[in-house]
Amino acid sequence: MALALMVLISCCLGNSMGGKTERYRSLRYHSQITSTEHELKWDFSEKMFFFELTVRSHDPVVGMGFSDHGESSNADFMVTWLDSDGKRHVQDTWTDSYSIMHPDVHQSYTVDGVRSLDADEGMIFRFSRDRKSCDLQDYHIDTGTTHVLMFTAPYIMAAPEMVNTSAFNLTTTRVQILKSQVDPGEIPDDTQTIDIRNNYVKVPSMETTYWCSIHRMPTMRVKKHIIKYEGLISSGSEAIVHHMEVYSCEVSPRVTIPNYSGPCNSKPRTISGCSKVIGAWAMGAKSFSYPNEAGIPVGNMISSGYVMLEIHYNNPNMRSDVVDSSGIRFTVTDQLRPYDAAIMELGVTYDPRQSIPPRSDKFYLEGVCSERCSDRGLPEGGITVFASQLHTHLAGNRVRTMHIRDGLQLKDLNGDKHYSPHFQEIRLLQEPVKVLPGDALITECEYSTWHRDNLTLGGFAISEEMCVNYIHYYPKTSLEVCKATISNSAIQRFFTMMAYYMKAKTNAYQSVGENFQSMKWNPVNSRLLQWFYDTMPIDAECKHSDGTYVQGRWSHISKPRVWLSDRYNPIDEHECDEKELERFFRTT
What we know:
The chain is mainly beta. It contains seven helices and 35 strands.
């Protein structure tokens, strides 16, 4: 069967690009393959994916494929190779749990051309596939992160069957293939750029540092809109700048803002009002442009004219020789958009109460933006969410924000089933989402600590964990933070149960972190902690941009009741139904 499939495809190959040349001339998206000179271009229609791989190598074997998180096992590959007679072949393959390659019985990919580059500098490989595939060996490409795998090999072979792909030097490139088709907005000719950067900061030789610095914005006597921003990473700082945020200091012009640059945990109280996020960047993010409907307002006495840049440095090797001038560049226009936009922070409060046991394959934390907070913090007509940036630290595998209205779970606001903490783009949603007063937004993060022997605390350090979604929306409101954590009384009840039933060394005189770290973890107490997180009351964080709480009671409140929850059986609108699967297997 494998030989028949190979012959079927190779008989049609030559140094030709086939009959779809025009389609490939207008591919809209591209990415450099990590640490190589190879390039991937792609596009999609309502029913098809189109890929063009430019390989700048003379190696006779080339493979490109997809897997959940960049693993060589359980992956979907297209492989092209030369045999001993110099003939080129192409085959759709898949790998098993041991990374062994097998030919796919149903060759889902169509080869649209393979040709050599001029001066024999490599080759261009074009292929396409249906967006909706019922072949269980085909990787399902969704709207989240796709991990693109690639390898080359310097030898000829008869066929890729039974080859162990883990022996290749695989590279992993993270992209979003199914990008939003919402118009990202036009950049007018009259724009100006404003750079908010650190001024040659000597990065401390410690693993985690949050560095805050105050900057004066240029004088703007009229209101303007920020319509684009992008990260500026200093040469040599690429590996240690984890994420950055710029906060507007929305305080009275009569308040004196000190010229501070230093650790955030030592910043003066007078800059505590610098808390309105106007720009955010995280590792892997590219520039972000606002849609034509909205922009972030600046100027015209909207704030004090000062901003605070916060940078999280992740310096695991404790380097003392890094001098950093990273920051964020804003593109500003005086051609105002119809709406003022803003950024709101959803998710789990930065608190050790929300921690993750060791050796857990799938453990969930939920941060609730409660219906009570949205009812009091959102305008009567609601807000329109158009973009989102998901954020965890290193144990995060999957993130989403559920949208709840009157107890019913609507379509997720945003989600990424193959999330990577190394690729935290700000993404336009596939379509804008209306969030009304009284809606609840539950940000759920799935973690894997299978290879960790110690508890992972919730907190700011890279070795600790976060669960956050920064949503971009309009019209602007004063609601800045809508998050939660398990209530203090509930977590103390958990520690009391552990001491009584499991003889844990937990007590009311220790901090939450000390209690957690004193426990010996096993599947029983890990599951019990998960049950507490899922069911117990929460302490909500419902705050204005000046750091004050929205009026109301926010301690020990009930979690929203959800009549339909799909955590363990998530709904996927692109999956094949039973009739489609039956038809597929009948024709294979």
